[in-house]
Amino acid sequence: MKTNALRLLDAAKIPYETVTYMVDESDLSATHVAEQLGEDIACVFKTLVLRGDKTGIFVCIIPGDKEVDLKKAARASGNKSCAMIRMQELLPVTGYIRGGCSPIGMKKQYPMFIHESCLGFDKIYVSAGCRGMQVHIKTEELIKYGKMDVADLIAG
To answer: In whole angstroms, what separates CA 50 from the centre of its chain?
Structure first.
């Protein structure tokens, strides 16, 4: 099955691998995904969509077991404050559902910020744009393709 994210990567001639896993509707966490993949959670990234008070919608991609620091995310994105968008906004804003939100191929090209820990990995996992599938992609390729800024986005 080819998702929009995968079609876009193919069109851009960016190499990647897809990995499927069993979806548990009661646990859509990245921690569950990492367990299913048998991977270190530090290299399985989740995609969060936020709204800043000045810039509007922006995206943070962070390690799956971490929480976004809203102050750091606001600062990185040029906002004074920010908050996660409401769950019912996710599909209309991005084209993706919870548990299948990919930083690749959203409805619009939103500003994207990826946590600096990604630089410690040659490849990372992000959602392929549906529940049950991840993309394993070179970190530098993802950053370049997504026009992502690398920033400190998590607490601690």
So the answer is: 12
